[in-house]
Amino acid sequence: MKCNQNGMETSSALELVLRGDPALLAIVRLSLAVSLSAVLFAALVGLPLGAALALTRFPGRGAAIVVLNALMGLPPVVVGLAVYLLLSRSGPLGELGLLFTPQAMVIAQAILIAPIVAALARQTLEDLWLEYRDELSAMGVGPARRIATLIWDGRFSLLTALLAGFGRAAAEVGAVIIVGGNIDGFTRVMTTAIALETSKGDLPLALGLGFVLIAIVVVVNALAWGARRAGERMAG
Amino acid sequence: MMRAPATDLPVRLDDASFAVGTVTIIDRMTLTFAPGAPTLVIGPNGAGKTTLLRLAMGLAAPTSGTVTFGGRERGPPLRRAFVFQRPVMLRRSVAANLRYALSAAGMPRRQHDGRIAELLALVGLTGIGDRPARRLSGGEQQRLALARALAREPEILFLDEPTASLDPAATKAVEDIVAQVAARGIKVVMSTHDLAKAKRLAGDIVLIHRGRVVETGPAEEFFAAPKTDAARRFIAGELLI
């Protein structure tokens, strides 16, 4: 009996996905928009930060790297809570009125994944710098060109870092549910919708979104793998 | 043509030392590399050959004493170039590695293609410009490293044991290019612990041991009538410890 019921819910979920249910598609679209925007902002902060940590030496650098690596494991609910306090009406940025908007969700996800992008970029660029340092110094290459060279030659690994950040952003629920509020048609994304619909017992929609989320994660990983392979093929 | 920058020659070490912590690798060395026949820096492993070349290239700064390039104590390499024992190829094609070096040396982009073809021909790599540089064999990578160094149109070329990990055929190919380079008037300074190579290529010899210059002079004199006991023992194949 239970098996039958599960089977019916699964087939209903697949039907929702295959016929492109408008509610489901709207949630997927918002999820992608929020997470991709978060990756963009995380890249704008994380890549230069990673490059700076990789190429400069200063007192406390080791501690900064340890902190950055530790921040990769930031609990999403803690980030959500911190952003909530910042954006809430009585918070320092309350006047902006961003709480329970997609922008707040982008901010929370960007904070969550910027350390991932920065830490992976730092490792990639530092390894590359150790390898290239003597050759670039012997060629008389200046600091700006060095950074550009490292970023270009490390582009496939850096893309992997961005995709890892996207995967983390797309799959997290704790931060966006706190700062977004899971408002139907406005701030409801895949993960928050799955949590809500499951608690309501509407399993087909939850399952359908789950299928899409898994498909996105698989595609992201395939892209990361493909980027690395392309890099190896092109650059040797 | 590339603009002719100020000269890097002579490269002069004046009482130069290099130490890491309490370990002295180069000990109060005074040497001059001026235009002329190739200079071979020889000595046993750990004598300080690589560090001497790095100081003379400006890749390392002396911890005491001075190193000057055409009378200047600091500044980027203008017309000096370096080939490492294990060269690192950029993650690009063979031609793109050369293009990068030409661009770093300030050559206008429109002149790149012609110069790349010349350099590839010089080192015997014509026809493989599109291949990923890191997929080349060790000997091919070393020849590409030579071409990349020559892209700077150097007055002085430092080579740090460039054939140490190559087979005889690849070694000969690299040595032939080095001889051609020297014949063009580029000052070659090469380190090796291989006496046969030193005899084949050297105009002058600098024998170093434990970070100090033991003996210098024209290669013929050095091998025929060494002045020091250490040089005699080294030439005889005895271990300098």
Structure described in brief:
By secondary structure, chain A is an all-alpha fold. Chain A has helices at 2-18, 22-55, 61-71, 76-87, 102-138, 143-153, 155-171, 174-180, 190-200, 203-235.
Alpha carbon gyration radius of chain A: 21 Å
β-sheet strand percentage of chain A: under 5%
Count of DSSP helices of chain A?
10
The biggest sheet of chain B, with number of strands, parallel, antiparallel or mixed sense and barrel status, is: 6 strands, mixed
Mean pLDDT of chain B: 92
The shape of chain B, in one word, is: globular
Number of structural units classed as domains of chain A: 1
| Topology of chain B as a string of helices (H) and strands (E) | EEEHEEHHHEHEHEEHH
Superfamily at the CATH H level of chain A?
MetI-like
Task: Describe the protein.
The complex is a heterodimer of chains A (236) and B (241). Chain A has 236 residues and is mostly helical. Chain A has a single domain, classed as MetI-like fold (Orthogonal Bundle), CATH 1.10.3720.10. Chain A is built from ten helices and no strands. The N and C termini of chain A lie far apart (57 Å). The mean pLDDT of chain A is 91. Chain B is globular and about 55 Å long. Chain B has eight helices and nine strands. With 241 residues, chain B is an alpha/beta fold. In chain B, strands 5-6-7-3-8-9 form a six-stranded mixed β-sheet, with helices on both faces. Chain B has a three-stranded antiparallel β-sheet with strand order 2-1-4. The termini of chain B are far apart. The longest helix of chain B has 16 residues, at 168-183. The interface between A and B is medium-sized, with 18 and 25 residues.
